[in-house]
Amino acid sequence: MFFLLLALSFPAWRPHFSFLENPLANEMMVLRWMHLIFGIIWIGLLYFFNLVLTPAMKQVDPAARVKIYPALMSKAMGWFRSSALVTVLVGMRYFQLHLFADADRAGRHALAVQWLGWWLLVWIVAYIFIYLFQLPAKGFLDSPWVRGLGIAIVVVAASWLVMALNGGTNVSNAHLAISVGGGLGLVMLLNTWGVVWRVQKKLIKWSRASAEQGVPMPPEAQRMMRWGFLTARVSFWLSFPMLFFMAAASHYPFLSTIAEAAAVSVRSALRFISVLWT
Q: Where are the domains of the chain?
């Protein structure tokens, strides 16, 4: 304590820091900080489910599994879905600030709303197709290659389209990168709340009843487990490009030329369609 007070008595040794005078810069820093914290919780649990829990549960005796599962998954799913929601909501606010900045540079404030609308439309439509590919199926539709190729085509098409619609001379690399990475994050959020949580609520309920009352798991449980597994595995693989594009927003400015090429291709396709219809 004495040495600390002694050090602080010398002006040159005192720590020098100050918050930025720009409130927007401070807000963006807080948003990025929160986005990282809750994103680590969310993606960390996603990796735990895929890499540790699922393989481990297959080796556990069924009688012990129904006792472990409700206690473990009730707590885990609470953190999983809550952190996913906070991550995406904070990320959307951060994305919105980039949209406003780019719209100001373009001199058209309405562009920010237009860009956000296109982004939401493209990724919600993409999710409808991804949702269908995640459903349990039989025959060749159950092939990992069919599912993987189908989802990859949807993701690439959505990414290309959103960059074409939102691209332009005044659009930043961060805007374009988050348009893709944030879109994948939105898909993963919809998976978390729309599929994984719905499935897990039923599995937790059935497992608890089986452990406490000796009630056998219903026949539907197998399909629910398969659906939950496929959805979690899709989110697991989507997290890799998602994390790349989110990191590229600030550290790897490579998307401006890709967006211009995407915009040219979409305009050419629209002109071709208009010619066919006339």
A: 22-277
User: In angstroms, rounded to a whole number, what is the distance separating the alpha carbons of residues 218 and 128?
Assistant: 28
**Chain-wide mean pLDDT for the chain?**
86
Model confidence at 82, pLDDT cuts 50, 70, 90, reads very high
Cβ(39)–Cβ(87) below 8 Å: yes
pLDDT of residue 229: 94
Q: At what angle do helices 144-166 and 256-277 cross, to 10 degrees?
A: 90
As a whole number of angstroms, the distance between CA 164 and CA 262 comes to 5
Q: How far apart are CA 166 and CA 122, in angstroms?
A: 11
Tokens coding 269: 């396709």
Residues 6+ apart with CB under 8 A from 71: none
Looking at residue 43, its pLDDT comes to: 97
Helix, strand or coil for residue 178?
A: helix
Spatial separation of the C-alpha atoms in residues 50 and 227, rounded to whole Å: 14
145 near 136, Cβ under 8 Å? Answer: no
pTM: 0.86
154: its two tokens: 């949807």
> Residue 276 pLDDT > 90, yes or no?
no
Beta carbons of 262 and 163 less than 8 angstroms apart? yes
Confidence label for 65 from pLDDT (cuts 50, 70 and 90): confident
Closest by CA position to 117, among listed 170, 166, 178: 166
